[in-house]
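lol ok so funny story. i was supposed to be doing the assay writeup but got distracted and ended up predicting the structure for this chain instead. priorities right. anyway since i did it might as well share w the group, maybe its usefull for someone
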Amino acid sequence: MKRYLIVWLLTGFSSFAFGQIATILDDATGQSVELAILTSDKHKTGELTNHDGQINITLFAGQQRIVIRSLGYHSVYTSYEDLTTMNFVIRMKREDISLDQIVVSASRWNQASTDIPSKVSSIS
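and the output, tada:
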């Protein structure tokens, strides 16, 4: 009888060892969003999605405000309750990014910045 009780308890506790997995997908293509970050008010650090767009969200259980961000996508603001109603599948909409023009100028010779007629920014 003790053996059955121990096996039953171990089986029950092992189900808690696996966390809740959420999947983040691109709304237009349905492909996974890699390296999206989830943050909340309680946790000042973020969690990143893997290459399949999946993330363990057990740390965010019960949170009222969860922020999901990824480069090239609009941020998503949600709660843990909303995630459960969405079956832990989050769809992110793409955002157009425009970058300003930059000019890279280089030469092989050292030149004093006072000799150059425009502003010099140094990149290490």
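The helical segments are 2-17, 80-85. The first strand starts at residue 21 and ends at 26.
back to the writeup now i swear
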